[in-house]
Write a structure and sequence with these properties.
Blueprint: H1 3-22, H2 27-31, H3 35-61, H4 74-86, E1 96-97, H5 101-112, E2 126-134, E3 141-148, E4 153-159, E5 171-175, E6 178-184, E7 189-194, H6 198-212
Antiparallel strand pairs: 1-2, 2-3, 3-4, 4-7, 5-6, 6-7
Length: 214
């Protein structure tokens, strides 16, 4: 091709394509999303969905935060007050003493409406003094009293559970100087009260619990 022919070809191409090269880009081209954006969004949604799916089981199985008790349960309060009234008694701490234990257990079982058992706490240093009948919101209540060689006393308070009391775990409460460990099963509510340090009462309460809840 000669130089003259080459120049003519370039001029022809310029005349035909320059108007297209210089015209503005249509607005629809700006509004149209590139195809890869849709795929990217889909991938992002899948990733977020997987993350939520993995996190939900962890949220469901996480234990609730512990709630601090605003006060002692009614069972613990009644037991602590009964202990404070009768434990200091010198001549009449009990209605029926331990020498009549068989009669005591039968009598209180009949009145409370449950076959009662008297824990043996000699291994913990406490001997049974006897027991008495007390009034309660759900009917008669049994109180068994024990004493150690130093004169310290503890009482086991046994009642039919109140409908409003649903505590089943082994729990601790403090009412003034009286410490209480208490729990509720399907038949009875139990509370062990004494003016003892928590470690000692925990040891004794554990023994009582094992004997009453084998």
């Amino acid at each position: 091709m000669s130089e003259h022919e080459d120049a003519q070809l370039k001029a022809l191409l310029k005349r035909h394509f320059d108007p297209v090269a210089t015209e503005p880009i249509p607005a629809r081209m700006y509004l149209r999303r590139p195809p890869w954006i849709g795929y990217a969004k889909a991938a992002m949604l899948v990733t977020v969905g997987l993350a939520i799916g993995l996190a939900l089981p962890m949220l469901r199985t996480a234990p609730p935060a512990p709630v601090a008790a605003s006060g002692s349960a009614p069972l613990a309060l009644r037991a602590a007050r009964a202990h404070a009234v009768y434990a200091p008694e010198v001549r009449h701490p009990v209605e029926v003493d331990a020498s009549q234990q068989e009669h005591l257990v039968k009598w209180l079982s009949k009145r409370v409406g449950v076959d009662l058992k008297v824990p043996v706490l000699t291994g913990e240093g406490f001997e049974l003094l006897g027991g008495r009948l007390l009034p309660g919101p759900e009917g008669p209540v049994a109180q068994f009293m024990y004493q150690e060689s130093s004169g310290k006393r503890l009482t086991l308070y046994v009642s039919r559970p109140n409908k409003a009391e649903s505590v089943s775990a082994f729990r601790f409460a403090q009412e003034g100087k009286v410490s209480v460990f208490y729990w509720i099963d399907k038949d009875c509510g139990y509370a062990l009260s004494a003016e003892l340090d928590r470690a000692t009462l925990t040891r004794v309460a554990t023994s009582v619990y094992k004997q009453l809840e084998p």
